[in-house]
Structure formats: C-alpha cells, structure tokens
User: What shape does this take?
Amino acid sequence: MNPRLLLHTLLVLLGPLTVLGNVAAATEGGSRSPEGKTHSQLLSEANVFLTTGRYADALSSFDSALALDPSDYLTYYRRATALLSLGRTGSALADLEKLLELNPSFATAWLQKARVFAKEGELGKAKESVGKFLGRSSTSKAREAEEAEKLQADISWALQKQKEMQAAHKAGAASVTKALKKNPETASQAVKVDSSLQQKAEQCVEAATAVLEVSPSHLQARKFRADCQLWRGNMEDATADWSRIAKLTPSTSLHLRLSALSFYIQSDVDAAKLHLKTCLHSDPDNKRCAQAHRKLKTYEKTLKKLHNFREGGNWRAVSSVLKGGKVGGLSIREEIEAYIRDELMKPVHGGAALEGDEPLIPLLLHDAVARSELLFGLTKTHCKAHLELSELAKAMPFCQQVLSRDPDDIDALTARGEEHMAHERHEDAVRDFSAAFSKTGNSDRGLHARLIKAQKRLKLANTKDYYAILGVPRSADAREIKKAYRNLAREHHPDKGGSQDKMAQINEAFGVLGDDELRTRYDAGDDPNDPMGQQGQQGGYGNPFVFQTGPGGMPFGGGGGGGAGGHPFAHFFQQGGPAHGHHAGSQQQQFRFNFG
Assistant: This one.
C-alpha cells in the first residue's frame, strides 16, 4: 500500500483515537502491561512509532495495548496499518475483520480492505469491499468517498482486462503447445513467425499490464505476462516478471530457473548467486540448489582468473585458462555450452520441476546457446587472446562467430583485417581496419599502424608486386628468394636473349627483397623504389638496367664492382656513380599522429 496514503489515513484517525485515549486514561484502573505501562501509554508510544516509521516497535506496542483492551476497535485499525507496512497482509486483513465485528459501521475499514484486496490481486473481493464502503458513504468523508469511487472504477477496468488477458493467454498457450508437440527443436521459430499467436501474445501483455497497474501483486497476471513475453521473444521482460513472482511466492524451482538464466544466459553472476542464496536460505538441504551454487562458484573462480590475466595483458595465461583443466578435454566454453544443452535445457523430473517436466531454461528458448552472453563473452576472449598471440588461424573461427553476432566488434574486425592481409586482400583489410579504428574514436595507435600498413600494401598492389615478379610467396625466406632470382636472371638476361625491361624488373624486385631492411619496409607497405615515398632521402635504389659483377656482385655482370661489406647488390640500385657508404633505405621515416 502507498505509504503516504497510509500515513494520511493514520493522521486522520489520530484525533479521535487521542480523545478516546484520554478518556481511557481517566477511567482505566490499575490495568497495566508486564512492562508497567497503561493502555493509554502504550497507545501514545505506538502512535509515535507508527508516524516515525518504526513499524515493528509500533506493532509490539499495539499488541500490548490490545492485550489490555481487546475491545478497542480503533487499535485494530492502527495495528492493521503497521502490519501492512511490514508486508503482513494476511494478519492485517484479520485485524480489519475483527474491527468490523466490533464496529460494523466503521466504513473506513471496508475501504482499507478494498485497497488491500486490489493490491493483492483479489479483484472480486476488492469490488465487494469497495461496494460496501460506498453503501455507507453517508458516514464517510468526502475525500474517502472520492477515492473509493476511483478505486471502484479501476477495479472494474482491471476485471475487464483480466478477462481479455485470460482469453488471449488461453488461445496463445494452445498454439505454443501445438508447436512444441510438433517439433521442440523448431518450436521457437514457429512461434516467432506465427502472426496470429504473436497478436494474441501482444494482447495478453497489454491486458496483463493493465491489470498489474491496479493490482501489482496479481500472480496470474504476472505469470501470464511472463509467458506472453516469452512467446514474443522478450526473455528479459519475462525474467523480470518471474523475479517478482519469486518474491511474492518463493519457489525453489523458480529461483533455480532465475539463477540459470541470470548467469548462463545473461552473464550476471551477482544476480545468479542471490537467487541461489535465497533458495538455500528457504531450503538449506535442497540438493539441486547446493549443486548449482557449487558449480556457479567454480565458474566464477575461472572467470575471475580470466579477468585478472586479461587485465595484466598475460594472453598466454588467458589462452591456457580458456583451454580448460584437462589436456585434450573440453574448453571452458565447450564445457559450459554442454552444461546448458545437457542439463539446463533438458526436462526436469521430480520436485524441482516448474510445470510438469519443463526444463529450467524454458523450451521456447531453444536458441539459449546462441543467446548466451556468457558464451559470447568467452568467444570474444578466445578471439582476442589468439589475436594478441598472433595465432591468426586459431583466432578466426572465434572471431567469425563474434562478427556474426556483433559486426562492429573491434578485436574481431582487427583479426579479420589481418586475415585479409595474409591473403593479400588489401582493400578488404583497409575496410576492416578503418572500421575498427573508427570504433575506437580514432584513438588506438596499434590499429592506426595496421591501417597505414594496409593502405600502403594496397597502394603497392596497384603498382608493383616484387614477390609476384620473382614468383615467390610472401613467406619465402632469403634462400628461396635468391634461388628464384638466379633462375629468372638466367632465363631473362639480355645476353641470353632476354628482355632488358623484364631483367630490369627482376633486378629491381631482388634489390628490395634481397635486402632484409628494404624487404621489411616493403612488407610494411613502403616501396623503397617509389620516388613519392622517399621524401628527400639521400641516394636512390639504382638504375635497374646496369649489370655489373665483381666480388660479391651479380652473376651476369660485365665488369666493375662493389667492394666487400654492405648490401652485396647495392650497386645495381644506384642512380649512377659508385655505391654510397650506407643504404638509402636505412633512413626510415618516423610516423607521427596527433591523438589530441
């Protein structure tokens, strides 16, 4: 009941009760409580306790006062007010009944009963009580009469909506039962696409909501609305109603369901623990609650490990925890998924069943694994850990799962961008890195570096591909590159009838890929032979049409030579004249980016 309304009613009654208390004080004899207090003293202190919100103390004083004078009907009303404030509805109604036995003309008691019945969902009794109050309206205050008329209208409206709710739920339940009997595996989708059923579910939710506005503790309205929300696919709304039902009528099986949904589906460990603790508090010997609590604590410990290792950047340890405790066994993610499928989604037999053999995770949540925020979080962690460890092949299956649910996930986009880079799909890589960088608010240095590298690679792909010219993969080592160069040089050397242009391309490619430093620059997307990329660097990378030989020189030269030391093929890439004492490529440009 509304505390303000209770207090208002209380203050209205204080006047007459004070007068009666004074009369009683003048006439009462030596009757006192065990504490030595008179009836009037007990009433006075009870009034103070009640108006200051000390309802338990007020209740104790009212009990003592009624023990001294059981015929004081107003004290029953006051004690009923304290009981309602403490949530003891049944005892409060008993006091109101006793009051009406003592004084049937006390109309306010009928109004109070109507309020209580309406709140508790007993709309028929509420209608009867408010009618009796209005039948005595000549003795009622105008304000109370106005309130009663509004309450009567609200009750009539709620009764009408209750009928609509019941009809819509009955029709919807029949369709759901039919779908489940036909094929439990496809029932969820069948319910989702059944337009007639969805219309009934919407009507049910709207009507139940109207009932609950008048009668917030209406159990049937709560249950029906939860069912209909589930039919509509609104699991969170259904869970909210189940949580309220669990508070109104504590149920072991319902607490188990709420715990399972909270942790395994919504990834809310605190809510899950609270439901299990409530279950064990009401039934300490309940084996299912105890088992569920132990399993939850085990998983919570694992998740804390993951969190701590992740926060510390220890991705190898993260990967190790994710693999699970047994070599060759299930990963943590696979273990939890199996538990959801094999335990939580299977029919429950015995005392823990909700309705019949309904599983803890409702039958219509057949996609519970796909919905699970807990499993999704573990999948994201797998993706992130393998990405950080440069284990792209291991990362991609997890990252693809992440992207199928969240196309904007930064780590998964980054991993996919790296996969595009590995397969030389540079345009796709630029797109993914750009999207990921944008999601960070353009503030992640690592992502910016990846994006720049992809952009350079894309530019190179549209100009020269030195690996393709030599016919080697990007993974080729120095020995493979040199061997490919020698074979191509023998085939295409102008002295052997080859093309000078082709030989120039071969020399140019080998001049870059045959030098570790230049190759690193090229792999990063910076072509050392691109004049636009030099930006004033000294020297160049030579004239590709000059063929020389000498100590350390190329095999098909015609004289001259570079000395020992330095890059053995540097003289093939000079813009004329002897080789400089250092490589132009050694003066790499420094990237600067303003993150302000």
In short: The longest helix spans residues 142-182. The radius of gyration is 40 Å. Residues 3-157 form a domain with the Serine Threonine Protein Phosphatase 5, Tetratricopeptide repeat fold (CATH 1.25.40.10).
